[in-house]
Design a protein that fits this description.
It holds the Pfam family Rhodanese. It is built from ten helices and twelve strands. It has about 280 residues and is of the alpha/beta class.
Length: about 280
């Protein structure tokens, strides 16, 4: 299997030595697991030749918000240092839960990479098939990467506030239902419970099965069940801009491309005392 969005392990085994293919490990600890040494886990075992795409490090550290998109110039430098070239076919994977690979896919795509795929099943599937792993860091020659970026793919708080008031687009929140419905605390301290007024909830985990997206028929049914109109503009949100990219990826596989990301997400909205929240207290 090789699609524009996913490649299978057998495809990667066949093409892993192709100089036009580069493998990227984008595993990431979910909220509440910050104690993990994810770079150390990468060094303990990763796909042969894979460099570590550290989403935490590849963020805008001038912002107080987590995982904000870096400036194109900073991203270009980081990719060149990793040895990643923009004109290659980049294959991204995560632990196998499809939690963070879509964020790396989205970042690379929107910084100008044309060929980005996700390894179906991720690291867990690779291990399940007893395929070889490599230990230690991977050092590559400097890559060729000059990022381009369309700022329109990202929405800011003021944009989302207007949409929430005027219903000019749909806000789709990828957080688990309990957090969306204010039935559970946020894993990040200092954030209110609830959601942006008018937002629809499509929990990212509902879209995933064994490290892959569900079938297109299943995805359509899920979006329909949650009231999402695939013919209207969509702004994806979540806790910090990571799992919203699972929603964006799922929509892309359905041919829905009028989709943007609220990168500040609930980490920004839920920290403010001057913004409306549902359910209202």
């Amino acid at each position: 299997m090789s699609t524009s969005y996913f490649v299978a392990a057998d495809w990667l085994i066949e093409h892993g030595d192709d100089p036009e293919v580069q493998i990227i490990d984008a595993r990431m600890a979910p909220p509440g697991q910050e104690h993990r040494d994810v770079p150390g886990e990468y060094r303990a075992g990763h796909l042969p030749g894979a460099v570590f795409f550290d989403i935490e490090a590849l963020s805008d550290h001038t912002s107080s918000l987590p995982h904000m998109l870096p400036r194109p110039e900073a991203f270009s430098v980081a990719m060149r240092e990793l040895g990643i070239s923009k004109d290659k076919h980049l294959v991204v994977y995560d632990e196998g839960n499809l939690f963070s690979a879509p964020r790396a896919w989205w970042m690379l795509k929107n910084f100008g990479v044309e060929k980005v795929s996700i390894l179906a099943g991720g690291l867990a599937g690779w291990k399940r098939d007893e395929l070889p792993l490599q230990q230690g860091d991977v050092t590559l020659p400097e890559g060729d990467f000059d990022a381009t970026f369309d700022a329109n793919v990202v929405k800011r708080l003021t944009d989302v506030l207007v949409v929430s008031h005027e219903n000019t687009a749909q806000i789709v929140d990828a957080r688990p239902a309990a957090r969306f419905n204010a039935e559970a605390d946020e894993p990040r301290p200092g954030l209110k419970r609830g959601h942006i007024p008018g937002a629809l909830n499509v929990p990212w985990g509902d879209l995933v099965f064994e490290g892959e997206l569900k079938t297109t028929d299943e995805l359509r049914a899920i979006f329909d069940r949650h009231g999402v109109d695939l013919h209207r503009p969509i702004i994806a949100s979540c806790g910090s801009g990571v799992t919203a990219c699972v929603v964006i990826l799922a929509l892309a596989t359905l041919g829905v491309n009028d989709v943007t990301l609220y990168d500040g997400a609930w980490s920004e909205w839920g920290a403010r005392d001057d913004l409306p929240v549902e359910p209202a207290k």
